[in-house]
Specification:
The structure holds two protein chains of two kinds. By secondary structure, chain A is an alpha+beta fold. Chain A contains four helices and five strands; from the N terminus they run βααααββββ. The termini of chain A are far apart. The chains are: A alpha+beta, B mainly alpha. Chains A and B meet through strand 3 of A and helix 2 and helix 3 of B.
């Protein structure tokens, strides 16, 4: 599952470049996120509560979707030399545990002056858009000797 | 674009980046005048201007700036 991060530089990227991957929301992810966040809200932990509130199952933490954006930044856009600087995100539909989703990111802007990029992203599952937004990432350079 | 219109648009971007509705840019202003103007907010500031005005800056152009007045001149030169 784990590969080495890509090593994009400003010059190996171009506006319009698209990266995407598919992920599955698992029980293990949910349990790990409880440990990380301390969030045991029943919408994410109690199927009876979740269904009583109109959902078809336990709702995946939004933070897990954000974790996949972190994966996009740190492994793909730009990969190894990333320093994540901003995130705007809108959640539009829930992802349920056991479902798969696709994260797609498109480079919208490359700034040579600041060695940074902006990309827009969307997360979709079963034809529905679950989240959308944008992120800004600085591309670090080695210290000059 | 008239210089006053340009300054109004720049001012709006500064207010958004630094989350300060009362901020008024002046030609003499520098990073020392705004507490939140650090390296990361500097990147947001430059990128926001690039995107909103549809221009690109070069590293050397940004490094040569001494104050906001220099920045206004640089941006105006790219738009004219």
């Amino acid at each position: 599952m784990f590969h080495k991060p890509k090593m994009h530089s400003l010059h190996s990227l171009h506006e319009g470049l698209v990266e995407r991957f598919v992920f599955k929301a698992t029980d293990e992810m949910m349990q790990s996120f409880v440990k990380i966040s301390g969030d045991i809200n029943p919408l994410h932990t109690d199927v009876n509560f979740a269904t009583s509130r109109g959902f078809d199952g336990v709702v995946v933490y939004g933070g897990i979707l954000v974790a996949q954006i972190s994966r996009m930044v740190g492994m793909h856009l730009p990969g190894r030399d990333a320093l994540w600087s901003s995130l705007n995100i809108y959640f539009t539909h829930p992802l349920l545990v056991g479902q798969t989703a696709e994260l797609e990111a498109r480079v919208e802007h490359i700034s040579e002056a600041t060695s940074s990029i902006e990309f827009k992203f969307k997360i979709t599952s079963q034809g529905k858009k679950l989240a959308k937004g944008s992120a800004g990432v600085q591309i670090l350079k080695p210290n000059e000797q | 674009m008239e210089r006053t219109d340009l300054i109004d648009r720049i001012n709006a971007i500064f207010r958004e980046v630094f989350d300060d509705d009362g901020l008024m840019v002046t030609p003499e202003m520098t990073a020392d005048d705004i507490e939140e103007w650090d390296s990361l907010s500097h990147i947001r500031l430059i990128v926001a201007h690039e995107i909103k005005f549809g221009v690109k800056f070069k590293t050397i152009e940004i490094n040569d700036l001494k104050n906001v007045g220099n920045f206004i001149d640089l941006l105006k030169s790219k738009l004219d």
